[in-house]
Amino acid sequence: MGNTETARTAVGVIGNVISFGLFLSPVPTFVKIWKQKSVQAFKPDPYVATFLNCLLWVFYGMPFVKPDSLLVLSINAVGLVIESIYIAIFILHSDWPKRRKIFIALSVEVIFYAIIVVISMIALHGNGRINFVGILCLIFNIIMYASPLTVMRRVITTKSVKFMPFYLSLANFANGSIWFSYAFLKFDPWVLIPNGLGALSGAIQLILYATYYRTTNWDEEENPSQVEMSDSGNHV
């Protein structure tokens, strides 16, 4: 039992490091936005979605929801701060119509989150609370892990991996695999299922990269919206 807990803690720490790297993966995009003082064709959607995802996982990791999940809580709390910074930069360099959409989306997310917290704390207890919050985390994590599907479809269509960076695909695979292992050591289906799918998604991306690397035209013109999709990493 002690060995299992030690292994789980070690795996969770490694998962925190990998997830932290994924949270930082959009930094080049925001450096570009900051320097040009314009969001150009970039979209805030991945960051607004990740913000809610982190909120849910932070709540899931609380001792009164899912005990012994401090490492899940800690990395998503860090992610919440990072995503807040991304969104703040986006708001700062957007025109009013884009800002308005971001404010509306964030308001809806906060209201939704507040409803989840109230229902969980007042109406649910024990396993009922864990399962309710866990199912929501599962749903939103699967949605986030499905986001690279559009990029993968483009790779197959164009036979080019220009807009699917290798290191991000590798990091997604490693992130899904390590958190899958973490959840397996002390069975937690709500962490295990989405990250198992994430590991599978990352593996498929790596296979596509190996398959189409030689047919890629590396001089192809870069499209900001495609870079945006590539930058949106997935996390616990």
Automatic annotation (TrEMBL):
UniProt entry tagged with the keyword Repeat: yes
Sequence similarity: Belongs to the SWEET sugar transporter family.
GO CC list: endomembrane system; plasma membrane
Membrane topology: Multi-pass membrane protein
Pfam families in alphabetical order: MtN3_slv
Official protein name in the record: Bidirectional sugar transporter SWEET
Role description: Mediates both low-affinity uptake and efflux of sugar across the membrane.
Chief place where the protein resides: membrane
Entry keywords, A to Z: Membrane, Repeat, Sugar transport, Transmembrane, Transmembrane helix, Transport
Subcellular localization(s) per the UniProt record: Cell membrane; Endomembrane system
